[in-house]
Amino acid sequence: MAKKTTFICEVCGYETFKWMGKCPRCTGWDTIKEFNFDKDDAHTRVKPVIITDEELPEERIILGIGEMDRVLGSGLTRGSSILLGGDPGIGKTTLCFEIVSRMAGLGLEVLYVSGEESLRQLSSRRKRLNLTNPFPILNTNRLDDILQAITDKTYNMVVIDSIQSIYNSKLPMLPGSVSQIKDVSSRLIREMKQTETTHVFIGHVTKEGAIAGPKILEHMVDTVLYFEGDKMLPYRMLRAIKNRFGPVDEIGIFQMQKEGLISVENPSEFFVSERGDIGSGSTLFPHITGSRPIILEVQAITPKTNFSIPRRLSLGYDLSRLFILIAVLEKVLGRPFFDRDVYVNVTGGMKVGETAIDLSVAASILSSYKDVNIGKDTALFGEIGLTGEIRKTVNMDIRLRECERLGITRVFCPRGAERVAGMEVIPVKNVRELFEHIA
Ligand SMILES: Nc1ncnc2c1ncn2[C@@H]1O[C@H](COP(=O)(O)OP(=O)(O)O)[C@@H](O)[C@H]1O
Ligand SMILES: [Mg+2]
């Protein structure tokens, strides 16, 4: 086998054909090291083929974990490579244990590779999660062991927990370094794509995030999932950042319990049940993520400022839009916020990208400013334009139906929404009309 020599920075993975004392990318000194890769010359010729649907049907495995299937796009695609990223302790191992156990229950061959926990820890975890279907676990940190295992037997799915803990002993860098992660994952992807083995790489998001974290793998895999949530709260969100086999705007919501993760199929109820009544400065917004509506609470406070330039801060709502929205409100209503800070928060840690939230944000700000209680039987949605006009949004009927389902009796929305029996659907033309309604 021929050898190919390159020089790679141990820290950032910068590649060059000649040695340098200082890495031009990360500016580290003496971080560039020489590597000899085996050049794969024994390669069989590949010929072009004509593909027709009958010959290569797409195969999906429905896991029966509702929220997971939804995010993947109706099940797991055979032979796909998936990256599951998230903070340490968020529940990645728990989720994968449940997936692997489900698949074992479906009679599929699965392998769980753990480079992080001992067999004893894994066994007590299995007991705690009440997983009945047994599945094989390979407890190793070495790439060679995994390659051997997948050559000895063909699996339907292999989980690597975590990609940062596996290393190629032929490379001198530490496990978890960029070059190790790239090398290990590219070899595993190559091998498992050949046998159509679905594979999941678990990756910890590190402080250095972009460079040393799972980000560097994103372009190599078919699907990138991030598992997120506030560790203090019992629910977790699974979000697809990239998906070659499904949508990217769906989110899956799980409840984290001692016995494992439970799919939350009606998240509005989940968010709503967390809350008693809502005070001034809070409004409800029917949000659409992917194909599903979720009712969220949007909060605002507008205290007198102590700064020469008042502050505007926002969590879950785009800050630039907040500046524009305040400018629009000031133009229509005079200048009520010139001496006030404005803080906006979407509860539950949700980040809303839709402009349909504008009306709810505006109403929360006005409700806080006027100290009027809009209450939890009212919801609002609609985009606000620069002249203060309320513009139509997509899926107005889905939003209204979700509001109806949750017992909301009054909805402010753009004109053109359908009537719903038993519910007061109030079309608003512009910000002034909204102000007259709530003030
Ligand atoms: N013995 C236990 N009892 C209850 N909850 C536990 C126990 N062990 C771990 N957990 C919960 O499981 C979560 C850890 O999930 P885990 O799947 O190990 O995370 P990750 O793999 O993302 O690091 C923690 O948030 C913790 O609250
Ligand atoms: Mg883990």
What are the key terms here?
439 residues, alpha/beta, Ribosomal Protein S5, domain 2, 3 domains, nine-stranded mixed β-sheet, four-stranded mixed β-sheet, 26% strand, globular, binds adenosine-5'-diphosphate, binds magnesium ion
Helix and strand arrangement:
Elements: E1 2-9, E2 15-16, E3 32-39, E4 60-61, H1 66-72, E5 76-77, E6 81-86, H2 92-105, E7 110-114, H3 119-128, E8 137-139, H4 143-152, E9 157-161, H5 178-194, E10 198-204, E11 223-228, E12 235-243, E13 251-257, E14 260-263, H6 267-273, E15 282-289, E16 292-301, E17 312-315, H7 319-333, E18 342-346, H8 358-370, E19 378-380, E20 383-384, E21 390-391, H9 396-405, E22 410-413, E23 424-427, H10 431-438
Helix pairs in contact: 4-5, 8-10
The structure holds adenosine-5'-diphosphate and magnesium ion.
CATH level 3 topology of the largest domain: Rossmann fold
Ions, cofactors, ligands: which are bound? adenosine-5'-diphosphate, magnesium ion
Q: Please provide the count of β strands.
A: 23
Domain tally: 3
